[in-house]
Fold these 3 entries.
Entry 1:
Amino acid sequence: MQKRKLGNSGLEVSAIGLGCMGLSYAYGPAADRQQAITLIRAAVAHGVTLFDTAEVYGPFTNEKLVGEALAPFRDQVVIASKFGFDLDPETGERRGSLNSRPEHIKQVAEASLKRLRTDVIDLFYQHRVDPNVPIEDVAGAVKDLIAEGKVKHFGLSEAGARTIRRAHAVQQVTAVQNEYSLWTRDPEAEVLPTCEALGIGFVPWSPLGQGFLTGKVSATTTFDGASDLRATFTPEALRANRAVVDLLGQIAQRKKATPAQIALAWLLAQKPWIVPIPGTRRLERLEENLGAAEVEFAADDLREIESAFSKITVQGARLPEEHMSLIDS
């Protein structure tokens, strides 16, 4: 597995990581626990070193799963987790929307350390920007945790360029994790240039468009509205957006790859400090995703993709409204 450094931080990880959320949360019922542990350990065997989780996934169950699965390999891997939602520490019940008060961040860190079976969190992200807490206070709280040896690196998720700059002025931001894929291009306008200017790595979550860019989702695919984020995808939007998958399929055929591999390879080709974290529950999909690191694009390939994509208008919302309302601009 190729390695990449997240910006100027010195944090080196595998070129493709593993997003663990979907094993427990957001994409239907949780996976079988033992099968999930087997998958995570298979990722380690294949050279993956970046594993992404959060307290809210479950809540709590995903961190426990990741902690158990990675315990035998703790010194070989980088574990990223997140804080920022207002959860009851005992039950996991949502008490409100967001909570990034410094005292709460430190409480979350202590609880996450226990669930992850570790004495340090390698990368600790603010999950969503809390408009009620100055980002300088958030960065200061994480800076304290770094000084105490409980956290190694600070990250931000779904943060806008201005917030990133303010946070970075207090505590170096190692990585920004926003949704980014061929069909979700929002970070290109301001966030990616800001990361480049400040030497910050970028970790695209949902790099396969919540599975749509694999070509396995069609207009007739249905999702459980109670447990699947993709319930917001309408048949009309899925039909209209099929043009994106068709484009990937055409390139995949020429490159002797799959649409998913082309989508991930396109991200890797954008910047050397971009590290996507696709998730999956299946070993064959894990191996397929990791194979994207072997796909090479010439400049002409990238221009062709850009030209073809510019003629496509992506339709529909990428997330339900309650999730979109929490995204910083």
Entry 2:
Amino acid sequence: MSDYHQISISGMLVFIIVLFFGSCQVSEDTVDENGPNPPVNQSQNNQNASNNINLAQVQQAPNQQQSQQFSSARLGTTSNRPEYDTIQPPVPPPARNRIQVALLLDTSNSMDGLIDQAKSQLWKMVNELAKATKEEEAPQIELSLFEYGNDWLSSEAGYIRKVGRLTIDLEWISDKLFKLTTNGGDEYCPWAIRDAAGILDWSDNPNDLKIIFIAGNEPFAQGPVTVRQACERAKEKGIIVNTIHCGGYDEGIRDGWGDLAACTGGKYMNIDQNEKVVHIPTPYDDEVLALNKKLNDTYIGYGSKGSSYKEMQVANDASAGNYSSANTRTRAFYKTKKNYSNTSWDLVDATEKDYDGFMKGVETKELPEEMQKMSKEEQKEYVDQKRTERQELQKELKTLEQKVDAYIVEKRKEMAEGDTKNTLDNVMMDAIRKQAEDKGFKF
């Protein structure tokens, strides 16, 4: 056999091997801790086949199943392509009463206003939820975040990404929300709902409140997953789906945004995504912000997350403040609530129930530098001191919150439009309050 033919055969073998292992890698990357993507009908398979996705495209665009396997190095980022984190927040602890909310936000090109409203009003929403009680106890609030309709995401995954699982770590969710960017694309709402209902760790307790909010502006029933399939998946888990059309009310009805809400006992709403949210300043804002800064100083970071989470806490304050002082003010008030717990990185929260028992499992190198040179007795005294400082600051902030709430009530009476604007926070809270009361929660 000639040298030419030997080289040709060798080259063909190399090509086949590369093709084989490349296919294995794509299959491997499409499974995460939640298992493979839930099965869909044959039309989805036909749709995926027609997309002609190659290996490079899949590697560059992680979906919600792929996000934990992809590193930013593999994403091949360009100047405007977002880099997706690979780490999820901690799994929430068991709780007797829970309010679980998954936000599914359209991040296609036309949705900058929607994302801005979500960023500016997240802490207002969770602060209102934290005022709820059931059986004289505050519920555990868990939040999850999805984005959909973004061309940077994998078409094989329906241009959908699970940004974060259901978690009580709302600082983590806030940080990722502020990093969302818009681009593209095709909005497959039923597919996004089916994924959120299928892969999140929803409570098995029928008395817990489980809600999906999905917001967008294109016709609802796009993509290979049907409204009926999405409805059945949500109803299996006892999830209420509320739909929010970004545009006219009648237009949203014509585009099918009311169908899935009706199917799951949810509410159809509409908003003007470009409406500017009303932020009401108060005479107490400067005092609140000063106390908030002191409150941040009472957090003692420990372990691998300690320093980065302290930095995230301050950064989220700054991001909220970019919208208004009222936004930072609301964040400060939420830090006084039982739901604002940071046991995974803050020693004060982590040692609240059993200081000695917890500290037995913490190595000296995991403590902040200022504590590493202290004796055991000095360490305990230091943590107790920070705990006392925090309790005093929280008490002052709670008093100011009452004054702020009373001031805003009076101010709204003076305003022609008040707080009745058709914005994301208003329609979401109207829905949540009614649905929470149906589950026995009180505000």
Entry 3:
Amino acid sequence: MKNKILAVITAVLGLLAAIGPRTIFPVCSAAEMKMKCYYTANAEIAVGIIAALVGIAIILIDKNKVKLALSAVQAILGLVIILIPTAIIGVCGSPMMHCVSSTKPALIVIGALDIVISVILALLTLRDISVENKSR
């Protein structure tokens, strides 16, 4: 049961990463010129959707070894969520811009939570695997 709850949380975090930069903690307006944050938001949509789908897959799949692999993938996706606004693409250069003060910190928190929860999920799944092996 704990595993399913944690998987739901990772799916929700993926959705937040996907929709957040355009709605909840939006990047700068790209009316005239598309800045770095515009491309960061687009990349986060893709990564967030993948993270949400991996979270859903963890919920639906019963095989613990597959859950373990998906948990590792989810942790890597959490890292990518952090790296997109910080190292891969970035955000605007001015600290006064909304993407620097709102979007970037929110994505860092979402990615960090995704990593931590995915690692916990992997450890719980490893425990379940070892219990299965002992019972055989």
